[in-house]
Design a protein that fits this description.
129 residues, alpha+beta, 43% helix
Length: 129
């Protein structure tokens, strides 16, 4: 009986460690980040729920910069940002593939403007320089 319980615990631990979220937290790779953003992360989730999948992330020092970028996008393509941009929105970033970041937008501690379909296929980071 104890042997079966230990086997069950080992299987459950192995299954949890193989998830895309735990893989991303361990390796910081783009394909697993995109998979988590596509399959596990949804608009309206709390910051804590998102962090439970992706890890703590970082708060960029220049929040106004990201609000300005979002406002420019909103002016050209409003469908991309259905919840718009507000002055108190907070942006959190996560690194992947050793590159700068993936930024998510939070309002009142809830994720806004996240569209999982944009993460269906992994697209490696490319610099615009």
């Amino acid at each position: 009986m104890c042997k079966n319980i230990f086997l069950l615990i080992a299987v459950l631990l192995a299954a949890g460690c193989s998830s895309a979220a735990s893989h991303y937290r361990s390796h910081g790779d783009g394909p697993s980040l995109y998979r988590v953003l596509h399959e596990d992360i949804r608009d309206g989730q709390s910051l804590e729920q998102v962090k439970s999948h992706l890890g703590p992330g970082d708060i960029p020092s220049n929040q106004d910069k990201y609000r300005d970028i979002q406002r420019r996008i909103l002016a050209k393509r409003p469908a991309v940002l259905p919840s718009g941009v507000e002055d108190k929105d907070q942006f959190i970033q996560w690194q992947y593939d050793g590159n700068p970041f993936m930024i998510l937008q939070f309002r009142g501690n809830l994720l806004v403007n996240h569209q999982p379909r944009h993460f269906q296929e992994y697209k490696p980071f490319t610099s615009v320089r």
